[in-house]
Structures are given as structure tokens and as C-alpha cells.
């Protein structure tokens, strides 16, 4: 897999796919190989095969391969669900949960049609957002740290819904917005932020500091300062919850960014702030999914080897209509990307 990864960093997608195909012929049951194939298939828009191989994530993904299995004998595999209760549960990270929760209303409608019900078990930090979204669809939402789950007949991880529902991303109309913020939080943030005619832009420059690719997908804060410091008519707001030292460094370079970290104590608070902004500029992290699911205009900065959901050679996203994608053309070269962002910001402000 080392060669496959190197070829992806070089944007040699056909060569990378040929490498994993050869590996699959030698070791057809190797789950890591299947997982690598899935990532390239989904990246290239091959949903039919990609969702099938996506099931290899539990043994093939480095982040998931040590995850304990959950009641494999009660996993839903397509059998009749008439009168049954299906437990769908969140998996992987917050961004994955924001991305895949859109499919829960689909399966809830199918269950209602056959007299069944759906329970959704989500990460506790996402509970309020997901409750507002899913309760109108008759879905009982419970947090992952519940002492006891409600009774259910069969279960499914949420990342397997696209396979079971036959999702084809390019032919399924993506909702412009499917998460609803807390209206009282939105109103409170609206009163807090100045209404002085300046463009309000949220900034994120790093994902999880422990993610293996974060050094490649994050943008050096100094480049943000260099790019945005002298732009008129724009007030920048930090959506980064762990960036106090970097904010101080950007300030010393002439870029003032309002720090809200102390108040962003939940996804509900972050969502409410996002809904009061005109634009979010972010790297690939859960905030990109959250802003997209809220329908807020978002400019996403991508390195040369993007997460599969962002696909290849396009500036839009079939997952999130509100997103515009700004892609690196050369490995670790962010300056040309940010110059395009700067030019578009000036045009937006004009």
C-alpha cells in the first residue's frame, strides 16, 4: 500500500488504481486492499462498486480495524423489515456522522411504509442537532453513551446505508440544507456579532491534530495572515477551538481574527455561529461537513490527495450544494490556492 499512497500524493490516480487491482488479484480477501480500492472507486465516482468495497472498512481501514464488532448475528443484510425496529448507529468521526445522517430519513420512510421503526444512536455531542433533524421523521434518537439501548431487532452502521439504499451520489439530489440549528442560539449570536456591513467570514486552518494526514491537509496560519491581512470590509471569526497560539501569531502578522473558542462548547453553539456568518473558509475537517449540512456558503481548501467524498477535478460537491472546492495543484503548495481564494473574496466583497 505504500506505493499506492505515494502515487495518490503524486495525483497518478490511474497508476494507483492499477497497483491496488494487482494487489487484489494476488490477495483477493485482503481487507486492507479492498478498503484501498473502495477509496479510489468512491473518489472517482464509481459508487456501485465503491459502496460494496466500503464494507471492508471494519478490517481494512487503519482507523477502524481494531474496533470491536457489534452483534454481527443481528446485522441487517437486506431481509424483510415489516413490523421490525432497525437500530442505525453512528460510526467513525464527527464529519462522517454529519455526512451520512442525511440517509436516516430515507430508511425511516421505508420502515414506515412496512410498519417498522428506526432508532438512531449518535455521538452524544451531536444529539441536539440530530434530534431536531430526525424527530419529525419519527426517528428516536439516543446518545452513544446511553446506559441501555432501546429494544431493536436488527442494526446497521450509518456508513452502510448508501449500500443498502442503492445510493448513487451523482443522480441523487443533495438537500441544500438538512440540519437545523437551535433558533435561540442563532438569535443570541446574531445579537452578539456586529451588524456593520462587513462580510463575516469564519476560518478553520487545521483538522484534528492527531489525524495522520493533518500535516498535509492543514494550512499554515502564517499563510492565512499573509493572504487576508489587508483585505478591507471583512471581519474574520475563528471556528478553530484549539488555535489560541496560532491566533496570536496571525495577529502579530496583521490579521485580526475574533476568537470564539471559549463559547464554542458544543456543536449547537458552533452551528449557530456558522448560521450568522456570510462565508466559511475551511480545510477538510468536520466543520466543513457541518457548514455544508447547514447550507452555509463554504469554501473548502483541499490538498492534492483529498478525502474520497470530495472526488476529483471539480469545484463543486454533489454532497453539499453550498460548498466550493479549492484544490491544490502541487504537493504542499498552498499559496496558489489562497491567491485564488483572495481574488474571489475581493470579488465577493466588491
> In one word, what is the shape?
globular
Report the sheet with the most strands, covering strand number, pairing sense and barrel closure.
6 strands, parallel
Low-confidence segments:
none
Helix content: 40-55%
Spell out the helices and strands N to C: HHHHHEHHEHEEHHEHHEHEHEHEEH
The overall strand count is 10
**Termini Cα gap:** 48 Å
Q: Which class of the largest domain in CATH terms?
A: Alpha Beta
What proportion strand?
Answer: 5-15%
How many domain modules?
Answer: 3
Our Rg estimate from Cα atoms comes to 21 Å
CATH topology of the largest domain: Rossmann fold
CATH architecture grouping of the largest domain: 3-Layer(aba) Sandwich
Q: How confident overall, as mean pLDDT? A: 96
Based on secondary structure, the structural category is alpha/beta
Would you identify the CATH H-level superfamily of the largest domain?
Glycogen Phosphorylase B
Count of helices?
16
Largest sheet strand order:
7-6-5-8-9-10
Protein name: Glycosyl transferase family 9 (Putative heptosyltransferase)
Write structural notes for this entry.
- This is Glycosyl transferase family 9 (Putative heptosyltransferase).
- This protein is of the alpha/beta class and 350 residues long.
- It has three domains: 2-60, Serine Threonine Protein Phosphatase 5, Tetratricopeptide repeat (Alpha Horseshoe), CATH 1.25.40; 75-165, Rossmann fold; 183-349, 3-Layer(aba) Sandwich (Rossmann fold), CATH 3.40.50.2000.
- It is 40% helix and 13% strand.
- It contains 16 helices and ten strands.
- The strands form two sheets. It has a six-stranded parallel beta sheet with strand order 7-6-5-8-9-10, sandwiched between helices. A four-stranded parallel beta sheet has the order 3-2-1-4, covered by helices on one side.
- Helix 6 packs parallel to helix 15.
- The radius of gyration is 21 Å and the shape is globular.
- The mean pLDDT is 96.
Amino acid at each position: 500500500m505504500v506505493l499506492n499512497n505515494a502515487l495518490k500524493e503524486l495525483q497518478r490516480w490511474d497508476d494507483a488504481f492499477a497497483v491496488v487491482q494487482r494487489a487484489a488479484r494476488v490477495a483477493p480477501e485482503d481487507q486492507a486492499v479492498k478498503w484501498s480500492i473502495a477509496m479510489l472507486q468512491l473518489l472517482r465516482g464509481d459508487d456501485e462498486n465503491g459502496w460494496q468495497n466500503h464494507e471492508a472498512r471494519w478490517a481494512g481501514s487503519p482507523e477502524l480495524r481494531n474496533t470491536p464488532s457489534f452483534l454481527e448475528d443481528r446485522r441487517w443484510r437486506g431481509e424483510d423489515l415489516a413490523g421490525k425496529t432497525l437500530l442505525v448507529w453512528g460510526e467513525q468521526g464527527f464529519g462522517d456522522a454529519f455526512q451520512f445522517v442525511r440517509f436516516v430519513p430515507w430508511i425511516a420512510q421505508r420502515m414506515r411504509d412496512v410498519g417498522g421503526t428506526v432508532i438512531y444512536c449518535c455521538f452524544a455531542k451531536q444529539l441536539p442537532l440530530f434530534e431536531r433533524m430526525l424527530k419529525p421523521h419519527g426517528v428516536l434518537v439516543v446518545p452513544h453513551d446511553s446506559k441501555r439501548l432501546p429494544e431493536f431487532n436488527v442494526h446497521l452502521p450509518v456508513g452502510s446505508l448508501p449500500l443498502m439504499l442503492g445510493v448513487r451520489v451523482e443522480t441523487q439530489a443533495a438537500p441544500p440544507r438538512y440540519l437545523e440549528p437551535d433558533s435561540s442560539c442563532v438569535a443570541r449570536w446574531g445579537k452578539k456579532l456586529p451588524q456593520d456591513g462587513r462580510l463575516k467570514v469564519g476560518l478553520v486552518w487545521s483538522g484534528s491534530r492527531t489525524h495522520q494526514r493533518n500535516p498535509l491537509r492543514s494550512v499554515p496560519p502564517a499563510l492565512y495572515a499573509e493572504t487576508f491581512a489587508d483585505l478591507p470590509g471583512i471581519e474574520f471569526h475563528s471556528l478553530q477551538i484549539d488555535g489560541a497560539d496560532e491566533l496570536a501569531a496571525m495577529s502579530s502578522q496583521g490579521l485580526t481574527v475574533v476568537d470564539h473558542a471559549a463559547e464554542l462548547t458544543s456543536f449547537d453553539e458552533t452551528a449557530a455561529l456558522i448560521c450568522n456568518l456570510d462565508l466559511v473558509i475551511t480545510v477538510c475537517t468536520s466543520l466543513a461537513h457541518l457548514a455544508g449540512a447547514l447550507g452555509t456558503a463554504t469554501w473548502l481548501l483541499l490538498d492534492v490527495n483529498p478525502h474520497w467524498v470530495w472526488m476529483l477535478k471539480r469545484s463543486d460537491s454533489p454532497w453539499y450544494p453550498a460548498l466550493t472546492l479549492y484544490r491544490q495543484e502541487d504537493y504542499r503548495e498552498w499559496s496558489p490556492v489562497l491567491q485564488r481564494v483572495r481574488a474571489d473574496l475581493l470579488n465577493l466583497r466588491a
